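task queued by scheduler; priority normal; single chain, no ligands, no partner chains; default sampling; output format set to structure tokens
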Amino acid sequence: MRHFYLLFFPLFFSATIFSQTQHRDVNVYFDTAVYALSDNSKATIATFISDLGKDKIVEIILYGYTDDRGSLESNMVLSRKRAKSVKNYLLSIGVAEDSFKVVKGKGEVIIRKFDEVETDIIRGLNRKVTIDINTVIPKPKVNETLIENKIVNPINIGDRYVLENLHFQEGYAWITKQSFPHLQKLAKILNTRTDLYIEIQGHVCCTRFGRDAIDRKTKKQNLSQARAKAVYMYLRRKGIPKERMRYKGMRHKVPLNKGAEYDRRVEIIVKNIVKKRKFHAN
């Protein structure tokens, strides 16, 4: 009996939180009847592992697949060789042997026949190995007086403040409960300093070519903007006038090159300082 698998288009980089670990995955693809990795596939894997950090890897699951051409037996052998090829490359770049939980060939993926061109495209997507990795989530560093320590006089136009204690649910623009005390402090400062006009900038990590990440709630590729807007809406509810704020999504255009956890951030930029005018009688 032939095995049937659901067909998924590639998700090059995704993340979902599971307790104290997070799940990430990447797919690499093969030419027909080939199990050796191409240079492009090696580069994809190397970048993926570098972004994660080898020391943070908890476990790896590799599944190899083929398209629906060829016999069941030969396709099963080929899928195993593809999975083994990826494992060997991961070992060669320093991934620990005991990280591998599953290395398995799944055989062929059966597809519904389309026109010739579309069928060839789908078959190409089925000649792959899926790399699923669980990594440790770094514990957030919390400093209860961080915002109050940072936003102090003298404040100048162009000053930039990173809200390190602001966290979101992974893949969403939902602010975590633990973040609200820090946002309350920010709102208090802005209510006191009514002369400050700010821009709220959202940043994301780990996307390719500087793109934005996908908001899992709306399915739109605008997560950095959605997170900046979430902070904007919170401050509006705390009484900060909309005329004093604007929000902007920066996508993955300004990485800090210190790790993924630093690139997932929201920054406050002082755009203007408007003093009250004093009028004198003639």
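post-processing summary
- The CA atoms of residues 117 and 275 lie 65 Å apart.
- Residues 72-92 form the longest helix (21 residues).
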